[in-house]
Amino acid sequence: MKALAEFTLSELESAFQSVGLPPFRARQVMAWVWQKGALSYDAMTDLPKDLRGRLAAQYPVLGSRVVESPKSKDATQKYLLELSDGKFVECVLIPAEDGRRTVCLSTQVGCPIACGFCASGLDGLERNLTTAEILDQFLALKGVTDAPITNVVFMGMGEPLLNVENVQRAIERLCAPEGEGGGLSSRRITISTSGIVPGIAKMAQMEGQLRLSVSLHAPRDELRTRLMPINKKYPIPVLMEALQKYQKRTGRLVTFEYILLNDVNDSLSQAADLVDLVSGLACKVNLIPFNPVPETPYRTPPRERCSAFAARLRTGGIVTTLRVRKGADIDAACGQLRLRKSRVLSPKS
Ligand code: SAH
């Protein structure tokens, strides 16, 4: 058994041919999945019934099983998928008022980065996701929306730049024409990283207009290392140099993500330090009020404090957005849902 996301169109054509099916059947199936968002063969009404049964047994539409899909009050939809080895990953669909429909995908089960505020890294890394497992998340979410998915962000569980090959192959499929892939433009795809410098150098070499987002969260090394131990390996000056090079090579804007943690990184003097740090790059800063994770010591700052921090950045000439919290009622901070599920299933001593 091999799920459909494991095939390109030409691979599926050859697989079908080897069992005596004409290539147009492969095109039909691919179009159902990638264009119309079919999640089962039952939906593929122009395929003979017996063929649908046969294909379902051999080439399941999804290799993963959707086990939980809580709907948030603000229409954010989060899916928990069970992989073929029983592990869990999560992905989110975030519809925006301007018509954009963004999906947030995971790239690893767990995460090795162990940021102090994040649920994904609490139990460490279990393994990388395969390309097909990454694409399954996209297909599962595509199957539940009536409008097209317009954007993809790799901001779910895991560190995409520590699983670069599989992420890159998934992106190629997401950018393939709609009948055989996601039909997206690479400028609609964002990779978010905790600052893996060799990965950033690789991204600078990638084709297309992929967007890079860097989780900064502190303007100085001491605090950043406390929040994100990866900063010991790639400290801020090294990271900034890699970003300068990236920008020189690609000409692309860099986005910084900055979680606001109450009384930790949200003071006006830290905002001023942040202005100094990022002013040399063509960039914008995306401020994210902390989405509470009970296992961590952090708290969300009051809204006025968040707004004052944003205002200080803008005064310093930095393009800044202050994110509205979405999906807080469905554990939409990355890793939270999966953590709840896997801890219930396999309590650690
Ligand atoms: N490992 C990558 C991508 C996954 S995390 C990275 O670090 O960028 C995606 C974003 O969610 C990161 O900016 C991360 O710092 C942020 N994040 C993690 N936990 C969060 C929380 N509890 N509240 C708000 N943002 C969080």
Walk me through what this model shows.
The structure is a single chain. The protein has helices spanning 9-18, 23-34, 49-58, 131-142, 164-175, 197-205, 221-227, 230-233, 236-250, 268-278, 303-315, 336-345, and strands spanning 65-68, 77-82, 88-95, 101-104, 108-110, 125-128, 151-154, 189-193, 211-215, 254-260, 283-289, 319-322. It has 12 helices and 12 strands. The protein has a 10-stranded mixed sheet, with helices on both faces. Helix 4 (131-142) packs across helix 5. With 349 residues, the protein is α/β, with parallel strands linked by helices. The structure holds S-adenosyl-L-homocysteine. Residues 113, 115, 117-118, 155, 159, 192-194, 215, 257, 259, 288, 290-291, 293, 333-334 line the site of S-adenosyl-L-homocysteine.
Report the CATH topology name of the largest domain.
TIM Barrel
Number of domains: 2
The backbone outline, from C-alpha atoms, is: elongated
The helix-and-strand class reads alpha/beta
CATH top-level class of the largest domain: Alpha Beta
Fraction in beta strands? 15-25%
Ions and ligands? S-adenosyl-L-homocysteine
Radius of gyration, in angstroms, nearest whole number: 21 Å
Order of helices and strands: HHHEEEEEEHEHEHEHHHEHEHEH
* Low-confidence segments: none
End-to-end C-alpha gap: 36 Å
Please give the order of strands in the largest beta sheet: 1-2-3-4-7-8-9-10-11-12
Number of helices: 12
